[in-house]
Amino acid sequence: xxxxxxxxxxxxxxxxxxxxxxxxxxxxxxxxxxxxxxxxxxxxxxxxxxxxxxxxxxxxxxxxxxxxxxxxxxxxxxxxxxxxxxxxxxxxxxxxxxxxxxxxxxxxxxxxxxxxxxxxxxxxxxxxxxxxxxxxxxxxxxxxxxxxxxxxxxxxxxxxxxxxxxxxxxxxxxxxxxxxxxxxxxxxxxxxxxxxxxxxxxxx
Length: 204
Ligand code: IMP
Ligand code: MG
Prior knowledge:
Blueprint: E1 2-4, E2 10-12, E3 17-22, H1 24-41, E4 47-53, H2 57-64, E5 71-79, E6 92-95, E7 115-123, H3 127-137, E8 143-152, E9 164-169, E10 174-175, E11 191-194, H4 196-203
Parallel strand pairs: 4-5, 4-7, 7-8, 8-9
Antiparallel strand pairs: 1-2, 3-11, 5-6, 10-11
Helix pairs in contact: 1-2
Bound molecules: inosinic acid and magnesium ion.
């Protein structure tokens, strides 16, 4: 459905999707379950959540509000797609907050001895989460667990063990609820499959 606003702005959203996979209530119900599992597993340890931005933004905000435990939140910014529908395999990590020393260096959050929970939007080839995990391991945390909202059923370039999973999906390109295509669709409150023509146009 495409509707034009009076000022000429066009809302193109639902019509760009082939179908909706998970609507808002379905996502929130699943978050209730995952949050309960995490709250139970970490009831005796203080959690340090590492959010992998930007894709996990909505997921992190909604999930953490369901976890009634003391915890700390750090954010990492990661880029691997560069506007294509396929991962480049090359993962660029940077801290979401500018490091006090500046200079564009990666300053890892101080996670030595801490129990880390990495939160990401989607597991596809595995490159991103494998790189994030390896990088965080160099900071000598006590433990690392991984939570992803979506995992694609496919052969991965890199194996990643997931401790908490929202939904398993087919190997299709999805957007919404934080997930983007070329920076768009993150603000949709639901998750859906992007129409193939839109991906194909972008490939050209
Ligand atoms: P991986 O490194 O191939 O596992 O890809 C992980 C990252 O690529 C995710 O954190 C997303 O930002 C992005 N990504 C992978 N699949 C999709 C998708 O279907 N829609 C939107 N972004 C995706
Ligand atoms: Mg991402």
